[in-house]
Write a structure and sequence with these properties.
Length: 110
């Protein structure tokens, strides 16, 4: 095997540094739950447990926070995951005839 001067350790290190600079975390999005006067609290807790994987105690606490403050962040995910969870939650509510409201907003805390 012969030595190729085009690919010395300095070149490899520079290329590696360039690749690392180009790799960035994808932007995150907040899933926000909005309070309404029609969706039962028990159903909101169920959604938080089944789709967002909160424990019953965490879901209950978060549901009350949203109830008293009007809205609350229930998760921060990449866009695709946030959208999928939002669609699942709204679909689950529509099947029951509830007007559950969720929205997404770009997370600016990074």
């Amino acid at each position: 095997m012969s030595y190729n001067p085009k690919f010395d350790e300095t070149t490899i290190t520079k290329n590696q540094e360039e690749v690392e600079r180009q790799l960035t975390e994808p932007p995150k999005y907040r899933v926000i739950l909005h309070n309404d006067d029609f969706t039962p609290m028990e159903f909101v807790i169920l959604v938080l447990e089944k789709i967002f994987y909160y424990s019953n105690q965490q879901a209950h606490s978060l549901m009350l926070k949203v109830h008293y403050h009007g809205s609350g962040i229930i998760g921060v995910y990449t866009y695709e995951i946030a959208e999928m969870k939002l669609v699942k939650a709204i679909g689950m509510a529509k099947q029951k005839g509830y007007p559950l409201m969720l929205s997404l907003e770009k997370d600016t805390t990074e």
